[in-house]
C-alpha cells in the first residue's frame, strides 16, 4: 500500500483510496462518581442524606440523617449482624422514602469490636458506597462512645471500654471538653486497667464498663452500652471520604487464637 501524495489518503488493498482513521482511546474514569451528577435521581430534591452503620458490639444499629433530621434504630442485640443489617437498611430507607441512590455519605464503625460484626458492617458500607457513589467515612467505636458521652453532658475525662471477650477490653481515654483522644486504642485485661483508673480517675462508658463493673468498682460508669450511630453521624462531619476502610481489630480473630491455642496444646 502507498501514500497518495500529501492528501491524507491511503490506498487500501483494493487499490482505492481510503481516508486514514485515527484510533481514539476512551477517556478514563478517575475516582468516585461525583454526587451532583446523579442528584437528579434524588426524590427528596437534593437534600443531604447520611447513613451510619454500627456493628462493633453485639448490637446492630443504624442512623439515618435526612436534611438534619435523624432517625436511629437498634435492629438487634444478639450478634445477628449478618441477618439483620441489610434488611434493616432497606426498611429504614423505605420508611423515610429514601432511595439508596440518594445517599450522600455512608458512615461505618471500623472498631475495635467483634470481628464478624466489623466485617459485616464494613462490607455493607463499602458495597453501598460503590453501588451508589456515596462518600465512605469511618469512625471508631471508642470515639463514638466518647462523643455520645459528651453529647449527653458528661465532662472531664472518659475511658471508653468495648467488651473484647476473652476477659479483655478495648480501651481509650478521652477528654470530653473539647473532645480529644488522650492515648491510643489498646486491648488489656480489666484488672490491668483498674490501677490506672485509681491513679487517674475517669468516667467509664461502653459495654466493657458494664460487663466488668466489679473490676472497676471504684469508678463511675455511665449507662452507655451501644456506640450510638447518631453520634457517628456527628463525628463524620468534615472528615475526608475514603476509598476503603480497614477494620481496627487490635488483635487476631477469636478463631485464629483458638486454633493457635489448640495447636500449641498438641
Report on this structure.
It is a single chain. With 266 residues, the protein is an alpha/beta fold. It has two domains: 49-140 and 227-249, Nucleotidyltransferase, domain 5 (2-Layer Sandwich); 143-222, Nucleotidyltransferase, domain 5. 30% of the residues lie in helices and 23% in strands. The chain is built from seven helices and twelve strands. It has helices spanning 81-96, 115-132, 141-151, 190-199, 207-211, 229-236, 254-265, and strands spanning 9-11, 17-19, 49-54, 60-66, 69-76, 105-109, 135-139, 157-163, 169-176, 179-181, 186-188, 203-205. A five-stranded mixed sheet has the order 5-4-3-6-7, sandwiched between helices. Strands 8, 9, 10, 11 and 12 form a five-stranded mixed sheet that branches. It has a two-stranded antiparallel ribbon with strand order 1-2. Strand 3 (49-54) and strand 4 (60-66) form a beta hairpin. Helix 3 crosses helix 6 (229-236). The longest helix has 18 residues, at 115-132. Residues 1-45 and 255-264 have low confidence and may be disordered.
Helix content: 25-40%
Poorly predicted regions are: 1-45, 255-264
Here the CATH topology of the largest domain equals Nucleotidyltransferase, domain 5
Principal-axis shape = globular
Cα-to-Cα separation, first versus last residue: 77 Å
What is the ordering of alpha helices and beta strands?
A: EEEEEHEHEHEEEEHEHHH
User: How many domains?
Assistant: 2
CATH architecture classification name of the largest domain: 2-Layer Sandwich
**Which CATH first-tier class of the largest domain would you pick?**
Alpha Beta
Give the oligomeric state of the chains in this entry, treating copies of one chain as homo and distinct chains as hetero: single chain
Summarize model confidence as the mean pLDDT: 84
Strand order of the largest sheet: 5-4-3-6-7
- Strand element count: 12
Structural class: alpha/beta
**Radius of gyration in whole Å, from Cα?**
26 Å
Amino acid at each position: 500500500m502507498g501514500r497518495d501524495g500529501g492528501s491524507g489518503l491511503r490506498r487500501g488493498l483494493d487499490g482505492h483510496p481510503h481516508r486514514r482513521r485515527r484510533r481514539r482511546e476512551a477517556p478514563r474514569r478517575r475516582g468516585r462518581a461525583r454526587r451532583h451528577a446523579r442528584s437528579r435521581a434524588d426524590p427528596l430534591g437534593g437534600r443531604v442524606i447520611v447513613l451510619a452503620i454500627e456493628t462493633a458490639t453485639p448490637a446492630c444499629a443504624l442512623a439515618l440523617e435526612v436534611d438534619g433530621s435523624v432517625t436511629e434504630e437498634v435492629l438487634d442485640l444478639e450478634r445477628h449482624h449478618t441477618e439483620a443489617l441489610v434488611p434493616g437498611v432497606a426498611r429504614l430507607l423505605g420508611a423515610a422514602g429514601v432511595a439508596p441512590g440518594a445517599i450522600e455519605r455512608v458512615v461505618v464503625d471500623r472498631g475495635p469490636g467483634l470481628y464478624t460484626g466489623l466485617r459485616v458492617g464494613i462490607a455493607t458500607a463499602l458495597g453501598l458506597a460503590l453501588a451508589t457513589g456515596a462518600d465512605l467515612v469511618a469512625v471508631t467505636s471508642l470515639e463514638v462512645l466518647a462523643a455520645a458521652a459528651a453529647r449527653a453532658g458528661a465532662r472531664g475525662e472518659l475511658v471508653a471500654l468495648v467488651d473484647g471477650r476473652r476477659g479483655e477490653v478495648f480501651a481509650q481515654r478521652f477528654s470530653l471538653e473539647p473532645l480529644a483522644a488522650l492515648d491510643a486504642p489498646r486491648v488489656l485485661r480489666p484488672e490491668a486497667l483498674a490501677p490506672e483508673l485509681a491513679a487517674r480517675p475517669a468516667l467509664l462508658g461502653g459495654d466493657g464498663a458494664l460487663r466488668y463493673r466489679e473490676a472497676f468498682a471504684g469508678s463511675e460508669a455511665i449507662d452507655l452500652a451501644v456506640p450510638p450511630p447518631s453520634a457517628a453521624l456527628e463525628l463524620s462531619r468534615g472528615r475526608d471520604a475514603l476509598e476503603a476502610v480497614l477494620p481496627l481489630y487490635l488483635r487476631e480473630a477469636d478463631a485464629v487464637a483458638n486454633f493457635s491455642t489448640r495447636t500449641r496444646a498438641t
